[in-house]
Structures are given as structure tokens and as C-alpha cells.
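Morning run. Coffee first, then this:
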Amino acid sequence: MYIKKNLRRMITISILAGSLTFAPEINCFVSIPIAHAEIQMYEGIGEYIMSDFEKHDIAKQRAKVRAEQAAKEKAGVYLKTYSKTVNAALTDDEVSTMTNNIVKILDVKYEPVPIEVSNTTGLMYRAKVKVNIDTDGVNNWLKRDLQEREVVTLQNIEIQKSNTQNDKRTEELKLQAAKIKTESEKEKIKSEFEKMDNEFLSNQKLEEGNNYYLNNEYEKAIDCYSEAIKLNPKNYIAYCNRGLLNFQIKGKKDDAMKDFNEGIKINSNYSLIYYNRALIHYVAQRYDNAIDDFGKAIELDPNFTAAYTNRGLMFYVQKKFDKAMSDYNKALKINPNFAPAYNNRGLVYFEYKKYDEAISDYKNAIKNYDNYAEAYYNCGNVYIQLQNYELAADYYSRAIEIFENFTQAYFNRGIAYTTLQKYNLAISDFTKVIELEPNFGAAYKIRGLCYLELGNNEKAQSDLNKAAELGVE
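And here it is:
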């Protein structure tokens, strides 16, 4: 009786919502059928006709990028088919983004080709590239957090749009260059070409930085974003990305905010900057500001499911559950397979004590993102409330299998085991909690009670004294 009374007092269930950040706080993985990795090789050819005002090195790089794109398009066709074999339904935009990030360039060859342009001899560079694609790269992409995948895909679309605009403007300059007559016109057109070249190089550094980011090489990514900004001070995407890493990896909130605000000055219509700036407001508990920024991201991109899901979370922490529910419903209307929205909507159902609906949503989250640790954990919390401690322990165990240092899951499973009078299992879980968080007073308290039940009074008293020392009576 004594231990049950204390358990009721101790069981403060912590709820985990879907992660807000670009890189998830908890690593959630999808289950992928076991298969031998396949490596496919592709070739691409790209050509670029340079003007008299362009540098040979830049012209060669432009030809190389076109060759890479040709090879990536071939690889993308294969990857879209392959992704279906592992039951991954990917949009064309996501396939393109994934392809950009997992292609490995094996070889590049250049050939200068003299050509006739406007009755004069010009020069074209032809680049031929060989690339390969390892299907393990697809599997690694599918393991990424769904919100991160959406954000990276949206960014890739923006970068490709910028590259297309740069190509178009460069071709327009070539036509203008053929008509110039004065020295002042030559100087002006030369300056314009230099500007386009710097924009092109800046975007190349931006994409290089993104590859470093996705390989968890954050310092190199930051350096690339800084170089991109140096080449083109108006590269708002680079400001957005550097700001995110300054905040997320280095904890430099002020520097991050400066980068985000500078990016917004350059382009106030880029949804991802507002989305990322909202993260800083969230951490600072400026929930209304975060709601405004997520709202601006939605205004600019009405199909931004992660923005709806995270704005819903802001409403949730403010206990505005009806508004949170509305945002989760909108996210799921846009993408009925978006697991974080199911997970977070389950939290609202939990608050409403609609436990069947909450369980249904957590199971839908798991169905769409097979090894979703947070959803397993949250589902375990519902079963705790329903006093189905065996099933609760099973769900916590699954969460722990996915995320081995999941402190809250160990703690709540320990509570379930204690209620089931499986005291040795409970003691093992509370010991793990204390190993992960040495000042977790409640873990000492309940472990001490378990030792009392087993008749180990010496260990029980030691734990209860430690709990009291940590402020848990």
C-alpha cells in the first residue's frame, strides 16, 4: 500500500512531441527490408559556351554542373524505382533532393571545343562525368526525421530555382555582350558576368555545405555557408543554414538570430528562414513569436506540413488544444502519412482523456514511421493511464530498443514494473536512469521503495536519503 501511494505521487508522465529542429533530438528510424546494397554507375555530359567576358575555370565548372545534373536525372529514375521496393512513397522533389545528396562523383573530364558563334570563333567546354549511387544512401535518407526531409527538400527546390535564374541571366548577358560597342558597356557587362559567376560559385558552396551537414560534419558545413556568403552577400539560403547551425550546434542564439534577420532582409518571402527562426523563439519560450513565424512560413508555403505541425506544438504547450488540433488536422489533410502530426495530435487526445483516439494516432504514427521512438513512448504513457502496465512496459521497451539512452522511457517502464511487482526489473531501469541522469531524485526514491519491498533495507535507506538530498521526499 505504501509503495503504491508513493508511485501515484511520483508518476509525472513526461510527454514527448515530434521534434522541432532540423536534426531531430531523438533519432527515429524506419525499418528497411534487408537487402544487399547495390551500386549503380551513370554518365552525364554537359556543355557550356563561354563568352569573352567569362573565365575558363568558371565555364568548365558550369559545364561540369550540367553534366552532373544529366547523370543525376538518370540516377533519379533508378532511385525512384528502388525506393518503391522498400515501400517508400517519395515525391519527385524528394527523389531529386535525395539524389543530389547521395551521388558520388568518380571522374570528370573536360574537352574544349572551338565553335562558330555570330560569325566569330568561340569556345565551348564539354564535361563528361561518371557518378555512382549506393542504395545504402537511400536507406540512410529514409532513416532521417520526416520533418527534416521536408525541410531539406524545400531548400533543394529553392537552390535549383536560384541556379536556373542564374543560368537564364547569364545567357541574357551573352546576348547583350554580342551587341556592345563602347568601353563603358564592356566594363558594365564584365561586372555583370562577375556578379553571376560569384552567385554561381556561392550556390556551389551552399550545396557543398549541405552535403557536409547531412554527413554530420557541421564545422565544415558552417565554413562552406560562410564562404557562400562571402562570394554572394545576398545568398539568403546560406544565411538561413548558417543561422540554424549557429543555433543548433554551437548554441549561439544571437549569431543565429542575426543570420536569420539578415536573410529576411534579403528575401522576405523565403519560408524556411521564418521556420528556423521560430525554433529560437521556442527555446526562449517566446511561444507567441514562434507562432507568428511558423504562421508566416505557412502563409508563404500553404503546404508546409512541418510548419503546421510545429505551430500546433506551440499551441499545445500554451494549452490551446483546439488550435493545436486544428493545425494537426491541416497537416494531415496535406499529407495523410505525416507521422509527426499523428504523434502530436495524440498528445491533444491524451489531454482530452480520449485515450482510444490517442492510441490510434500513435499507432498511425508508428505505421507511417515504423520505429518512431517518441510515438511508442507516448503510447506507453496512455497504457499507464489505463493501468495496463504490461502493455505500457512493452511500448516503453520498444522505444528503448530504438533509442538506447531514452531516460524517460526507462523511468516510466520502471514505474510499470514496480506496479507489476517486478522489483528487480524496476531496479535495473531506475539504475539506468540514474546512470544517465545522476540527479534524478525520483529514480532514487522509487528504487529505494523497491529495495524496501525486497527487504534490502540498507540500500533502500541509502537511496531514500539521496532522494531527500535532491529534494524528493
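The chain has 21 helices and three strands. Good start to the day.
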